[in-house]
From TrEMBL:
This is Epidermal growth factor-like 6. Residues 1-147 form the MAM domain. It comes from the Eukaryota. It holds the Pfam family MAM. PROSITE patterns: MAM_2. SUPFAM superfamilies: Concanavalin A-like lectins/glucanases. Transmembrane segments: none annotated. GO terms for cellular component: membrane. InterPro entries: ConA-like_dom_sf, MAM_dom, MAM_domain-containing.
Length: 148
């Protein structure tokens, strides 16, 4: 399932209880957009959450969430991913980029007795004043994540 922002078929929601929103940003190549949080938004430790609603996942099966992400800029903050059934513990976290390149994140989602009905991308504001946190090309496939 393609959940990308420019042409995806998925439902995305901004969290109403966080400190700031994610916003669309134009891609360098001009083909659509990605979702981003500029480094200067909010105060240190503030959070912005973007939630992907998953309505049609079958119980007792596994899925792989694959996405592109970028943490550009010095002390830009953290990017975390949470699954709805594990609200308090991130299943994935990055806190700095080695450079400004886009990287790929992969997360296995195991559907047990309770079904995961959402995935939340959370950006935490760092000390930096330049750069951004970005997410794009979100795809959900059946089965476990492939090895690199």
């Amino acid at each position: 399932v393609d959940c990308s922002f420019s042409r995806g078929v998925c439902v995305w929601k901004q969290d109403a209880d966080d400190d700031f929103d994610w916003n669309p940003a134009d891609r360098d190549r001009g083909d659509g957009y990605y979702m981003a949080v500029p480094a200067f938004v909010g105060h240190k430790k503030d959070m912005g959450r973007l939630k992907l609603l998953l309505t049609d996942l079958k119980p007792k099966s596994s899925y792989c969430l694959i996405f592109s992400y970028r943490l550009a800029g010095e002390r830009v903050g953290k990017l975390r991913v949470f699954l709805a059934n594990k609200k308090n513990t991130p299943v994935w976290e990055q806190n700095k980029g080695r450079d400004e390149r886009w990287r790929t994140g992969k997360i296995d989602i195991f559907q047990g007795a309770e079904t995961t009905n959402s995935v939340t991308f959370e950006s935490e504001r760092g000390k930096g004043k330049t750069g951004e946190t970005g997410v794009d090309n979100v795809i959900l496939i059946s089965g476990l994540c492939p090895e690199d």
